[in-house]
Amino acid sequence: MVRPQVSDNICVRCKGARLLCGKAKCPILVKYSILKSTLSVDPGKFKGKQDIFGASPPAVFVGHVGYPYVNIGPLIPIGNFSAQKDTRYLDSPESWFGKDINEIIAFRSGLVRSNFKMNIKYNLPLMELEKELPRTNLKLLKATQELTLASNSVDTEAKLNRIRVGMLYGTHSPPQGPSGRAEKIEIVDNVKVLKPVDKAVSDTDLKAADAIEEYLYRAEDLSITSIQRIFSAGLLGVKQNRRLVPTRWSITAVDDIIGKYLKTKLQHFPSIDKYYSFFGEYLDNKFVIIFMPGPWAYEMNECWNQSSIWNQKVEGIFPPVQTTKPVIVTDYEFEKGRTKYAGNVTGAYYAARKEIEEFLYDSRKQARVIVFREVSGGYIVPLGVWVIRETVKQALAQGWKGPNVKIHETLDSALSRVASKLSIPLEYWTHSSQLLPYIKKQRRLDFWLRRL
């Protein structure tokens, strides 16, 4: 059998999402999915049919593998977690910053995906899809959607035909733990629904993006994870347009909706007048974020070092994907935003952008911003784009005069922060950037215009 030819550095560009190598499953993610050393449950205790009971955080997962035939269902705690009444932290990436990888995997491995299979049919409205569902699947779907609305942990029962113990990793969503085919899902608790959520879901004449902007974004006690969950369950938007959305897609969609909304606000604010560099670090992810004077523009540059998960030799891929040279991927936008998906950096682009725009909005400023992200070997498995979102948020948390911030008079001075904080030489970053040449050219043009 002839091995398929693939381009250099394909894993860095794909990150297991698009299967650019031609394989049915990502060989890197498959390798990590079978590791059980950090699981919080004993695989030997879950054989045959199982009745499980516990307080769902609440959490719901809509798969994308095999789309439009996907797995859907709530996440219910097992093992030691099943006795806890408040399990919200198990599905709350907003509260995970500072925790190590083993803790996060332990959280996620303690939640069982109680799956049932559905054909969510591309572009078919949910109201039409429900008419075609068998009664059992319709009941499972309604229970899952009811759970999605909850602001509290909700006692939930499920009957599973068996539980498959293992971990599922991806670049967008947090790790997913054991799974089982659900024969019954029943909510045995009161579901508390926040008023903004009730209004957004009840308004069937409002587009999903408008519902997020008007009712949900920055509503008290409502996290981004909660908004993503409600969006994924097909509970937002004009009634005839509501659809189930795979979890990984909903995460980026919500980041993008909020980002576009904030960008329209930023354009009315004055520009900053100095150069600033921020530094943030978490789980061997290092970020240098440079803010520059000028109208809104944004770029994210991402490099996976040789020791990192996406830059390693993979059996069956030819030529070998590992390289000794830095591999940097880049996406960017100007004032008008993007018209196409950021296919190089993917979901991380939108997660970082949302936090940066939020920071600028709160400051009532606009700026040109470049993010440099360097990932090294300590980030042993992908944990989802929440890592990017929360690390950028923490880097910006103390404002323009925080201890991790430096103020610069020139762009070259700001770029020296990249050289001092990241191991990849500055020349590789500047060569990859599409925004830097534009800014430098614009500065030269402004200089000569002022002399006329």
Task: Give structural notes.
The structure is a single chain. The longest helix is centred in the middle third of the chain and has 20 residues, at 247-266. The chain is built from 14 helices and 12 strands. With 452 residues, the protein is α+β, with helices and mostly antiparallel strands. α6 (195-202) runs antiparallel to α7 (208-216). The chain has 3 domains: 28-187, no CATH class; 195-263, no CATH class; 267-451, no CATH class. The chain has helices spanning 10-14, 27-33, 101-109, 126-132, 135-148, 195-202, 208-216, 224-232, 247-266, 347-363, 386-396, 411-421, 426-432, 435-451; strands at residues 50-56, 60-62, 69-77, 111-119, 154-164, 179-187, 275-282, 285-292, 297-304, 328-333, 368-375, 405-408. A 6-stranded mixed beta sheet has the order 1-5-6-4-3-2. A hairpin with a 2-residue loop joins β7 (275-282) and β8.
Oligomer description: single chain
Give, in order, the helices and strands: HHEEEHEHHEEHHHHEEEEHEHEHHH
Strand order of the largest sheet: 1-5-6-4-3-2
> How many individual β-strands?
12
Overall pLDDT score = 88
Largest sheet: 6 strands, mixed
Poorly predicted parts = 1-6
Helix content: 25-40%
Portion of residues in beta strands equals: 15-25%
Radius of gyration (Å):
23 Å
Shape, please?
A: globular
Q: What structural class do the secondary elements suggest?
A: alpha+beta
Q: What key phrases describe this protein's structure?
A:
452 residues, alpha+beta, 3 domains, six-stranded mixed sheet, 20% strand, globular
